[in-house]
Amino acid sequence: MDKALKEITPKSEDFSQWYTDVVKKADLMDYAPVKGFIVIRPYAYRIWEFIQADLDARFRATGHENAYFPLLIPESLLTREAEHVEGFSPEVAWVTIGGGEVLSERLAVRPTSETIVGAMYARWIQSYRDLPVLINQWNSVVRWEKSTRPFLRTTEFLWQEGHTVHRTEDEAVREAEQQLEAYRGLMQEVLAIPAVSGVKSAGERFAGAVETYTLEALMGDGRALQAATSHFLGQNFSKAFDIQFLDEDGALKYGWTTSWGASTRLLGALIMVHGDDRGLRLPPRVAPIQVVIVPIGKGGERAQIVEYCHALKKRLDPSTRVMVDDRDEFTPGYKFNDWEMRGVPLRLEVGPRDVAAGQVMASRRDGGAKFAIVSSELERAVSVVLDEIQHSLYAQALANLKAGSWEITDYQEALARDRRGFFYGDWCGEEACAAHLQEETSMTIRCLPLGLSPALTGCAVCHQPSRHRVVFARAY
RNA sequence: CGGGGCGUAGCGCAGCUUGGUAGCGCACUUGCUUUGGGAGCAAGGGGUCGCAGGUUCGAAUCCUGUCGCCCCGACCA
Question: Is position A100 within any domain?
Answer without folding.
Answer: yes
